[in-house]
Amino acid sequence: MPRGDKGAYTDKQKRKAEHIEESYEARGVPKETAEARAWATVNQESGGGNKSGSGRGKPDTHVSSSRGGRAHKSGSPEQRSAAARKGWVTRRKHQAA
User: Fold this and answer.
1) In this structure, are residues 52 and 33 in contact, taking their beta carbons and an 8 Å threshold?
2) Four-CA torsion 59, 50, 10, 22, nearest 10 degrees
3) What is the pTM (predicted TM-score) of this model?
4) What share of the chain is helix, strand, coil (3-state, %, to 5)?
């Protein structure tokens, strides 16, 4: 199969890539870059084309779409909440000064 041929992908994978590409384009990403990112996301979630071979039927991980492109969060939810409160207090203190 030549590079770039999407024949080994399922219809669902193709629809998912199209949807992701449209989302990137709506955020102002150039078309070629959006397409490349969309297929990279599909490959990361499903391990590539699923139409035939040993990978068929493996469940998708959805790890990249659940993150939504954000970096990994550090700390527990309680630590993040405490940091947010501390930042809010500091901003309020600086605004009053």
Assistant:
1) no
2) 70
3) 0.57
4) 60, 0, 40
- What is the identity of the amino acid at 92? R
Copy the structure tokens of residue 40. Answer: 């990279």
In three-state secondary structure terms, 55 is coil
Which residue range(s) make up the domain with 19?
1-69
Sole residue written with tokens 């930042």: 87
95 found inside a domain? no
Quick: pLDDT tens for 18-63.
999 999 999 999 999 999 999 998 888 887 777 666 556 666 777 6
Rg (alpha carbons) of the chain, rounded to whole number: 20
Cβ proximity of 18 and 39 under 8 Å = no
Specify whether the CB–CB gap between 45 and 63 falls below 8 A: yes
